[in-house]
Amino acid sequence: MQPGMQSRQMRAEEMPSSTSGEDGTGHAMPELPALGQLDAEIPVVGQRHPGCACVCCFSARHCRQLLPQEDPSCKQHLPPQPRSCALLWVCWGCTARALLTCPWFPAVPLPQPCALSWCGGRKGGYVGYQGGSGENPVHPSSSRHSQSQLRNVASSGAIKKHQKSLSAWFSHQPNEERQFGPSFSLDAVHVDPVIRESSLEEILKPSPDLTIQEQLQQPCRQVISLHNLFDVDACGRQVKNVVLYGTVGTGKSTLIKKMVVDWCHGRLPRFELVIPFSCEDLSHSNAPISLRRLITKKYQHLRDVVPVLGASNLKVLFILNGLERLNLDFCLAGTELCCDPNEPVPPSAIVVNLLRKYLLPEASIIVTTRPSAVRRIPSKYVGRYAEICGFSDTNLQKLYFQMRLCHPDCSGEGSRAGSSAEQENLVEMLSRNLERHNQITAACFLPSYCWLVCTTLHFLYFTRTVPPTQTLTGIYTSFLRLNFSGEVLDSTDPTNISMMKYVAKTVGKLAYEGVMNRKTCFSEDDLQQCFEVEMKTESELNLLEVFRSDVFRFFLSPCVQPGKEHTFVFTIPAMQEYLAALYVVLGEKKTLAQRVGKELSEVMGRVSEDVAVVVNIISKVLPLRFLPVLFNLLKIFPRYFSRLSGKERDAIAHTMAEELFKEEDYYNDDVLDQINSSILGVEGPMRHPDEAPDDEVFELFPIFMGGILSRRNRAILEQLGCSIKNLAAFEIAKAMKKTVIRKSHKGLPPSELMDYLFFLHEFQNERFTAEAVRSLRAVNLASVKMTPLKCSVLASVMGTTCHEVEELNLTSCNLDSSSLRTLFPVLLRCKALHLQLNSLGPDACQEIRDLLLHDKCVVSSLRLANNPVGEQGAQLLAEGLAGNRSLTRLSLLHTALGDGGAEAIAHHLAQNRHLRELNLGYNSLTDAGALRVVEVAKKHEALDKVHLYFNDISEDGKRALHSLRMDRDGVRALVFLTAGTDVSDYWSHILSVVQRNLPFWDRERVRQHLALLLQDLESSRSQTANPWRKAKFLRVESEVKKMLGKLQDGTL
Questions:
Q1: 636-664 mean pLDDT
Q2: Pairing assessment for the beta strands 972-974 and 889-891 based on DSSP bridges
Q3: Residue 543, Cα to own-chain centre: how many angstroms?
Q4: Is the four-CA dihedral 747, 749, 754, 755 of positive or negative sign?
């Protein structure tokens, strides 16, 4: 017992139990209640209690310090009316004296005199207090004014603390959201979904499903804003209870969070106090608790405000989020009436009586729920139904993407200078794709899928860390956690199956059969086969009904392709492959015998453990030697089925390998480009409706299988009710070594190799990845568009080992200086490095210089052909060449060096001791530049071959170069197809180089050079009498003429 209460009870014992006599007005004085009984929350001074005539009561609980100041002999008390409550009533005189010493009411202006006629002859009397005056009598208006002042003083500070606490909590970003940067808060990026006023009749009898085009083209009727939900209804009645419903993914929880944050920042002035509750939290306990205790337990800052909730005009809003988690019973037999906020009842009973308006009848309530649970609240308790329609307006989708993708923090730290233009380009491409009313428009009908689109684009375009902080599988798993974490399909069902587990068993089956049959469109018959064929009980049919009502549209939507309006497709194409992978990895792909065997195995295993204890005890007492034999027989069954489960995991690994290395998918785009195209669309003419569609590609399916097995994703799926045991993941990985790694040994096309590297990244098993990478001696990724993400994946996967790579081919991969910086640790370990056709300028040459000067560099062959190196880049490369010890071959073919670049290389070439071959062809070198390079090469210890063809070298320069070659045998300057009166030994090499690079060179200039080569061949042929040499000249001439002819016809 608190000290105040003990003192209070002692003083109550000293007081007389009754008071006799009359007061000055002739009223009989009532019997005073014992002060120890005053545990109920009593309104503060100036509040009228229901059924009582007094306007001068105060809170005995919060002002126990007042009691020693009371005068027990004071006769100035109001006699209670017939319906009065058992409260201690005192007049203003006693109250004012007490309040002067009460720390809970510091210096509050009060009415001075007692205006009551029964107040002991003190009418017009005077009680001193701070700031007071004894001249003016109290009036009802001044009493109400003092009531408002007292309430504001008591609650304003607490409510401000409550707002601050709520704002911090509801502005908190989940882990999945933090990847966008700290400023991506609800205030910074939020678009309100469309809210439509509805009715119970529409919910019970929904209109026929419209196609996506019809839903987007039709204006949404009866639209209502979030701030107008509590406006009067059509009949002019004030709305107190609002039910806000919507299917999974429409944005109910986000909208409520935004509503709370708006109130915290003063943007919801209709309400003075907002008290949110999660129905999921309320469902976890059935222990009786009072409403006031429930509020103060969750929101401690409101402990000083709670006493005034039922006795003041404070405008309160209760938010009950996720009503489908609560089982409510509105029958009187199931939930008794309760109007006392202090009475302990189960949390569900509190919710029922709040909605009944027995508890806090003046409070407003907004309830969010899924469609299947709307009918749990009788319609007579609902003032307005409102449906969240998501982003049914395409302009809302565009606005969301504009705000999200163009935000300055979207590109992350260390972004390139052109990131802003890249962000705007992404939004533009996405907007054009939305305007075509493609399938992505149907997906972005749900705000949650808009979030997934932005997250995926952020992953594809702005990932630059090594290793990448995210995986694609992790994004999809986290996306499902955001929408289904803790969700039970139907809280009234005794199985209590998690929503995600149900989805994996049913929708996953549909997805898997679609992947196996190469199909993305599903008819009603297909849906019935997957959802209804095994339905046998009432409970299963009820679960299916709830799924169709609440979840179906989240995963499947009507197809938008002409002629397929009555079929369904997965809302996001990649989700089909993810759910198919989850279906397989969870082991749901079983025959009936396997399922029965697994259940029997588990039962027999538990029985055998119990029997073991009994057998051990009996065998020590009785000589029953046959009992251990029976016990071992019991163990045979579980062991037999454990072997079957091992074979099942081998089958999963085999499926993964077969799907990963399908030869018919070898020459498709890599999976990351496929995802990018599915979101941003493919620019160009649209396919004609009569044109045969391309075969469906499901290359993400095996990658998702590997990603789901990672430790992080398994932990998240465990929260969703989809458990994958560590032992199962270990055995699948062990079985994969026999299949996946063996099949990867054969040569893979570049796009397929990129998919394999991405699979290893998604698998997140460093030990397995290291073993797989060691077998890759040559990595050919030519023509793969190496985005920052792909560079990070390549660097991360190859970084699991330290072995040397024989060859890394990154020809025509859209590399830049930041890409080289990301790949730097990998490039150090590559012996042959192909970087031609990548638009690498001087900035990139600085990275290459650092690479060549690194003491761990093993690069022996470096090809930089067809890059805009220029004179400045040549200077940087020459510095790297001077200090390098490993490089033996360097190709700078067609790199715009000019004589200045050639001079820079010649200047530093003398400091190099290992270079053996240098290609400076097609660089606009004149006689001076070419002679300068060859003069230095003549003195070089190892250099024996310099390529100078397709340069601006005259006949005199050619003869000078030939004479230099004759001075020191072994230095070969390849300039023309001829060598004196003979054909050059390297004529075929020169022509093959021209043919390979012709698509990237200036055709007119190539034609001119070929004409010069042909003229030189004819001149040399006329100067020799050797028939054998003449024949060789004629052969080479025919090859050049053939190339010229194809060039003029445009066939080359």
A1: 68
A2: unpaired
A3: 28
A4: negative
Higher pLDDT, 868 or 173: 868
For residue 385, the cross-strand partners are 198, 243
Give the pairing of strands 568-570 and 273-278. unpaired
CB 563 within 8 A of CB 514: no
Which residue matches tokens 């990724």? 781
Looking at the whole model, is its pTM more than 0.85?
Answer: no
Sign of the alpha-carbon dihedral angle for 800, 804, 806, 812:
positive
Mean pLDDT, residues 93-107 taken together: 41
Residue 505 corresponds to which tokens in the numbers above?
């068993």
Say how far apart CA 521 and CA 696 lie, in whole Å: 11
Q: Return d(Cα 79, Cα 32) in angstroms, integer.
A: 10
CA-CA distance, 843 to 1017, in Å (whole number)? 41
Write out pLDDT tens, residues 959-979.
787 776 655 555 666 776 666
Rounded Cα gap, residues 292 and 793, in angstroms = 55
Taking the C-alpha atoms of residue 1028 and residue 226, their distance in angstroms, rounded to an integer, is 93
pLDDT value of position 128: 33
Alpha carbon distance 549, 526 (integer Å): 18
Scanning the structure block, which residue is given the tokens 């209070």? 8
Question: Please, which pLDDT band fits residue 588 given cuts at 50, 70 and 90?
Answer: confident
| Separation between Cα atoms, residue 809 and residue 781, nearest integer Å | 6
String of DSSP letters for 506-546: HHHHHHHHHHHTT---B-HHHHHHHHTTT--SHHHHHHHHH
Please give the span between the terminal C-alpha atoms of the chain, in angstroms, as a whole number.
99
Amino acid letter, 545: E
Q: Higher confidence at residue 302 or residue 72? A: 302
Q: What is the pLDDT of residues 723-778, one digit of tens each?
A: 998 888 888 888 888 777 777 777 789 999 999 999 999 999 999 999 889 888 89
Give me the residue spans of the domains in the chain.
Answer: 152-389, 984-1051
Find out whether 478 and 452 touch, Cβ atoms under 8 Å: no
Q: Is 152-389 assigned to CATH 3.10.20.310? A: no
The predicted structure's pLDDT at residue 781: 94
pLDDT of residue 533: 65
36, 9 Cβ separation under 8 angstroms: yes
What one-character DSSP code corresponds to residue 319?
E
More confident residue, 55 or 373: 373
423: left (phi > 0), else alpha (psi -120 to 50), else beta?
alpha
Buried b (16+ CB within 10 A) or exposed e, 838-861: bebbbebbbbbbbbbebeebbbbb
Question: Could you tell me which residues are beta bridge partners of residue 510?
Answer: none
User: Are the C-beta atoms of 233 and 239 separated by less than 8 Å?
Assistant: yes
pLDDT, one tens digit per residue, over 117-153 is 333 333 333 333 333 333 334 444 444 444 454 455 4
Mean per-residue pLDDT for 429-434?
87
Distances (CA, A) of 672 to 514, 711, 823: 21, 23, 19
Strands 556-558 and 568-570: antiparallel
Quote the CA–CA distance of 544 and 87 in Å, as a whole number. 56
Per DSSP (E only), the strands in 150-233 are 195-198
* Residue carrying structure tokens 């027989």: 633
Cα–Cα distances (Å) from 178 to 212, 574, 720, in that order, read 32, 23, 21
Non-local CB neighbours of 1006 within 8 Å, separated by 6+ positions: 950, 994, 998, 1047
Dist CA 506 CA 649 (whole Å): 21
Across the chain, what does the average pLDDT equal?
A: 77
Give the mean model confidence (pLDDT) for residues 413-418: 50
Contact 453, 679 (CB under 8 A): yes
Reading the block at residue 981, the tokens are 């009166």
Closest by CA position to 686, among listed 787, 586, 555, 560: 560
Decide which of 352 and 1022 is more confident: 352
Do the strands 568-570 and 364-369 form a parallel or antiparallel pair, or are they unpaired?
unpaired
141 alpha carbon, distance to own chain's centre: 57
